[in-house]
Design goal:
Elements lengths: L1 H21 L2 H7 L1 H11 L4 H5 L5 E6 L1 H6 L5 H5 L3 H10 L1 E3 L10 E7 L5 E9 L2 E6 L2 E10 L2 E6 L11 H6 L5 H9 L12 E6 L1 H6 L5 H5 L3 H9 L2 E3 L4 H7 L5 E5 L5 E9 L2 E8 L7 E10 L2 E6 L8
Parallel strand pairs: 1-7, 8-14
Antiparallel strand pairs: 1-2, 3-4, 4-5, 5-6, 6-7, 8-9, 10-11, 11-12, 12-13, 13-14
Helix pairs in contact: 2-3
Length: 317
């Protein structure tokens, strides 16, 4: 009888061990082809696939297939042909050590957690119209706490942009859309401001916005009055970190709110609806006849957030 009991226990342990292995994060992601195939394609080209087959625990912040399509990846093959370096950075930014039950965090904005590589992510948990909403870097969590034997999966509606630059000045200098802004910040004596420890959010005018405002070349920016440029740029930024979805969560039933800027004046932020849901914002200054759409939202730096716009926010009529 003792022999039979020992055999039975050994068999049970092996079965439990096999179940544990086949229920790990890598298998669950691979099995859910309908929703997770794009992420799985990226994962397959990184070392993180082996990590998610290990003991963990890990939490995977997993953009679904629609999120990858919205990020410009038409299908799994498009993900597979992305550069290995970019995929490694992208996939790693969506994995954290430990189990994070995001729907149990405090009700607060932009609570810091870290990716497996140590880069910061910002989690908001808030109530909007009676519904509890969780966002990560402004991306909404669609499904919570999908269980694996070695961790959890949280499903997102957007692909997170990895934190590449620690300073806003570096993020701006690295973006070819923002060449004119980079020069304008230098001319206005404001680069040091955005290279410090203070956190800022910037509605960053791209090159086309500067051209439309009369700055037709780099030389025209370098020849402009530095004080005038400083006033112009102070109306594009404010202290603090704010993602687009933060406005959706905090704006009332009118769908319109005011944002105080660095120069002390306000811009108007208007929520944009798609169907029954708010999905974005426009911004306008006193001198703008219509709202300005965000061309690229939630570009994260270590000391702030950049939202790229294609018109200048105007302070005067």
């Amino acid at each position: 009888m003792l022999f039979l009991q020992a055999c039975s226990k050994s068999h049970d342990n092996k079965a439990a061990g096999a179940a544990d292995v086949t229920n790990r994060l890598n298998f669950i992601i691979d099995d859910n082809r309908f929703n997770f195939s794009a992420f799985n394609a990226g994962l397959s080209r990184t070392s993180y696939r082996l990590a998610l087959a290990g003991a963990g625990p890990y939490t995977v912040l997993l953009p679904d297939n629609n999120a990858f399509i919205n990020a410009g990846y038409a299908n799994d093959q498009a993900v597979l042909t992305e550069s290995a370096a970019l995929l490694g950075n992208m996939i790693g930014y969506h994995i954290t050590n430990g189990t994070w039950e995001l729907d149990k965090l405090p009700f607060a904005f932009n609570q810091e957690i870290e990716s497996i590589g140590g880069a910061k992510l910002y989690v908001t948990r808030w109530v909007k119209n009676g519904d509890t909403v969780v966002t990560i870097n402004g991306a909404r969590v669609l499904s919570y706490n999908l269980q694996a034997s070695n961790g959890l999966i949280q499903v997102l509606n957007a692909v997170l942009q990895p934190l590449v630059h620690q300073k806003l000045t570096d993020a701006i200098a690295a973006d070819p859309q923002l060449t004119f802004l980079n020069v304008a910040l230098e001319r206005a004596g404001m680069k040091g401001l955005l290279a410090g420890e203070q956190v800022y959010t910037i509605f960053a005018p791209n090159n086309a916005a500067f051209v439309a405002a009369g700055f037709t070349s780099i030389d025209s920016i370098n020849g402009a009055d530095s004080a005038g440029l400083r006033s112009l740029l102070q109306y594009t930024m404010f202290p603090g970190r704010k993602f687009v979805y933060d406005y959706i969560l905090t704006t009332g039933v009118t769908g319109i709110t005011q944002q105080a800027m660095l120069n002390g004046d306000n811009i108007t932020v208007t929520l944009v609806k798609s169907g029954v849901d708010y999905t974005g914002i426009t911004v306008s200054g006193v001198g703008n006849a219509a709202g300005i759409a965000i061309q690229k939202a939630n570009v994260l730096a270590g000391n702030g957030v950049v939202h790229i716009i294609n018109q200048m926010v105007r302070e005067n009529q």
